[in-house]
Tetraspanin
Amino acid sequence: MGQGCLKATKYFLFLFNLIFFLCGGVIMGFGLWLLLDNQSFIVVLNNSTAVKAACYILIGVGAFSMLMGFLGCLGAIYEIRCLLGLYFSCLLLILLAQVAAGALIFFHKDVLNEEMSKIVSKVLDDYPGNNSTTEQAWDFIQRNMECCGWIGRLDWSGNMVIVNSSQLLFPCSCQNISLASGNFSDSGFCEAQTPDWPVYDVGCAASVESWLVTNIGVVLGICLGVALIELLGMILSICMCKNIHTEDYTKVPKY
């Protein structure tokens, strides 16, 4: 490989590693957002060990990707063969791990949907109206998506506060504004004047699933982009590693 081609490969590899570093930051940021955001649906699923594990995996993969991008930049600029070889090996492992994770998610999506349904049902049954983080997230969903319950309003029939109360209570965040009269609250429980609650009839399942599908598409798009960058980085790194020659120490002056 000529010196011109070697230099072009070196700077292209540096550019790809910079993009790889930034993509790792995006993945880590997404994992942190899922773990820490108090106004998203993911808060409702925070009791799920699988969801928390997925968030930590995203954070770990993102951090590791940033580290590999940094090492790749060093190896490319300073033409260090051992770093380029290590970079290629780690990229290969990351790529295989991403393919395995994607396959697991795809083939176990029914199990994930079932677990999500169970978690949401438990949230509705245990909803005490104390304005906790989980309750705020669920109120936010019902209020903004204009829905009530997971499948419908009857999902709230198992809530212990509603069952044990002598009043006709319903979740305030479910309240249909067009049917409301007077002042109304955004959270907790409100008192109904009749057994027919003034709430939305539609459940949140369809809207939430649409939200999840939309965000999963974004995640998969990011992962696909990262995979392509990884593949290009692997090709460039192995080509550069093969064509970096060791120093010819016979040319060193002897005294």
About this structure: Helices lie at 3-36, 49-78, 81-107, 109-126, 133-145, 160-164, 205-243. Residues 205-243 form the longest helix (39 residues). The longest strand covers residues 169-171. The beta strands are 169-171, 189-191.
